[in-house]
Prior knowledge:
It is built from 12 helices and 8 strands.
Amino acid sequence: MHTPLVFSAALLAFSAAPAPTDAIVSQETLDVRYFDGPGAQTLDVFAPKGAANRPVVLFIHGGAWMSGDKNFFGLYRSVGRFFARHGAVAVCVNYRLSPRVQHPEHVKDVARAFAWVRAHAADYGGDSDRILLCGHSAGGHIVSLLAADENYLNNPDLKLTAEDRVAIKGVMAVSGVYRIPTPEEFAVMMGDMVNGLLQSTGNKMIAPATLAPIVLGPSRALNPFRLVFGDGRAAAAKASPLSHVRKGLPPFLVLYAGRELPMLDGMAVEFGKALEDAGDAVEVRRIDGCTHNNILFKLNQENDPAAAALLAFLGKFGGPATGVKP
């Protein structure tokens, strides 16, 4: 989840420019429609030049289900280029946003994109039998729910078979939301964010008790969880990946930032424990030196721990990222 105010800092702090070798190693196909419906249901494909039978990473952007896109000033396209540079075919997906649509339409769109990848991955050098889901923030929620709740990929409109569904070889969820917070929990989250901002600036002239009502008053009306998922607690529980954990899910890599948004670090640990208790393969990693917003935007830096974790998981569960067209 991003808030516009917090996420703007990431845009100021990080360059969207691709690595110098991207133009040499990748072939980019932008703005492909994956579904003939209303809205921006398009995707970008980043593939190593001459690739054949490469693992496919289906990447879903963040933005609190209400903002952002597969490009976002080049920040998310840089993630697609990162995977392509390391031998995978990356597919970065747009989905319809709230408030125009509400949950579960975001996940339904990503299920449609998955069906497109199954049908077309080979056209771009990908192996449609080796698909890994990856998402950041709201995207981390979407890919986790898509993998955990069978209803989405069982939608008869998609015409997917059991063989299609087992093509998901792993899920890489980054700074995701795994349990939709209650309104009371969201109020606590916002209060923690206000206190954290004041502490980080060292401002001693404004007391949190003075500033909190100013910030929290409108935030209750603009609670993104309420706008996206509605008011019902049963619906929120059904939309929570944590509610659908069971034995037999694909392997998960769960990353969270050292300076994470309030509650999301605890959710990552809670989700990982539930997967482990169910008997599923899972690795939970805290990535220090980053925030919720920029955890994926340092992948091109040398020795970046998030990059190392993602590539290790891709290699382990996606298989060899090699192969060229004959």
